[in-house]
Write a structure and sequence with these properties.
Blueprint: E1 3-5, E2 15-17, E3 21-22, E4 29-38, H1 41-48, E5 57-58, E6 62-70, E7 82-85, H2 95-98, H3 107-110, E8 117-119, E9 122-126, E10 136-140, E11 144-146, H4 153-159, H5 162-173, E12 181-185, H6 189-201, E13 205-209, H7 213-221, E14 226-228, H8 233-241, E15 246-251, H9 256-264, E16 266-274, H10 288-294, E17 297-300, H11 308-320, E18 330-335, H12 339-348, E19 353-357
Helix pairs in contact: 5-6, 5-11
Length: about 350
């Protein structure tokens, strides 16, 4: 089958090959035919080495498709079912799951170290234990989540990661209050979803911050009340909050420099929500006096900060009701052969989300 493979960490281009085989099918596993997959910035971060991932590997974790076959012991799924891919499934048995913090379950991460593809030259890993830049993939049954018939594959794919992450940061983690002021730093697909989450929660002012003009323009269409370049944030803070700072600031870039900017633009007693996935050697620093004296809450948000199955259902309900716009987030569509063009569009900020149709 065909798949897009990164041979070595640090390479910027993927090679589309037709000699890849999905392996690992058996008890508790499901084989999927991928129909659509989104390109998420985490895929690019894994390619560059910012996020740890064994190579060679197939990127992609934001996918949807159909069940081809189910292994022994799998219940609730049958061949032909339409599903989205959950890259961080909950085991239901670990301490995090039993506490109700299923987004902190580590079972899914364990899959990232087990090859689930093979080529004549040897094993190939799937990013985050999935790898959806391919025609077929084998995943654990918990990673295949049924979707209603009225949800298109490309919409389901977005809900599988970026939309859930952004909406959840605003709704689950930060719990944005109605009438509040919000700033979102980084307005790609996850940042746009965060803006939509803040709008759903009733924020009065939502300031989008991004260096790319097209993304600032897009942010206004998705609910931002104002959009500024990074050098305009200080002025927006002064005009909108009287210099006090915003009630909520979301860092959706994954760098310590922008996290520090976010902290400095959060009001005393306000909330900094860190959504971007950054590198292990990039440290965010806060001095002990300001940490104590300013009483700012620093809240990381992983995969939307809540039970992902409930978050999937909520995203679908909000989409059906017209409360969030997911179709317009897909700014580019390509076939698998165009994956490197899609990567370039993401790196330059030209795209919000590219849908790869398989």
């Amino acid at each position: 089958m065909r798949a897009a493979v990164l041979h070595e960490t640090g390479q910027e281009k993927l090679e589309v090959l037709d000699d890849v085989e999905a392996v690992g099918f058996g008890p508790g596993k499901v084989k999927l035919r991928v129909r659509a997959t989104g390109l998420c910035h985490s895929d690019v971060s894994a390619m560059s080495g910012v996020l740890p991932q064994p190579a060679p590997f197939i990127p992609g974790h934001e996918g949807a498709g159909e069940v081809v076959d189910v292994g022994d012991g799998v219940t609730g799924l049958s061949a032909g079912d339409r599903v989205l891919v959950c890259w961080l499934p909950a085991c239901g048995e670990c301490p995090s799951c039993k506490r109700g913090q299923t987004q902190l379950c580590l079972a899914g991460f364990m899959n990232a170290g087990t090859p689930n593809f093979r080529r004549p030259g040897g094993d190939v890993f799937g990013f985050a234990g999935t790898g959806t830049f391919t025609e077929e993939v084998v995943v654990g049954a918990g990673s295949a989540v049924p979707i209603p018939d009225d949800v298109p594959f490309e919409i389901a794919a977005l809900i599988g990661c970026g939309v859930t992450t952004g909406l959840g940061a605003a709704i689950n983690t930060a719990k944005v209050e109605a009438g509040s002021s919000v700033a979102v730093i980084g307005c790609g697909g996850v940042g746009i979803s965060t803006i939509q989450g803040a709008r759903v929660q009733g924020a009065a002012q939502i300031i989008a911050v991004d260096p790319v003009a097209s993304r600032r323009e897009a942010a206004l269409r998705f609910g931002a009340t104002e959009a500024v370049a990074p050098d305009g944030l200080a002025d927006a803070k002064q005009r909108i909050t009287g210099g006090e700072g915003f009630d909520y600031v979301f860092e959706v870039v994954g760098k310590s420099a922008t996290a520090r900017t976010a902290y400095e633009n959060t009001r005393r007693g306000g909330t900094l929500c860190v959504v971007g996935a950054g590198a292990m050697d990039d440290s965010f620093q806060v001095n002990m006096f300001e940490l104590f004296f300013d009483e700012k809450r620093i809240l990381p948000s992983l995969y939307g900060g809540g039970d992902v199955l409930r978050s999937f259902d909520r995203a679908i309900a909000l989409w059906r009701a017209g409360r969030i716009d997911l179709e317009s987030m897909i700014t580019h569509r390509v076939r698998l052969d165009g994956v490197n063009d899609a990567l370039d569009q993401m790196r330059t900020g030209e795209s919000l989300r590219t849908c790869i149709e398989l």
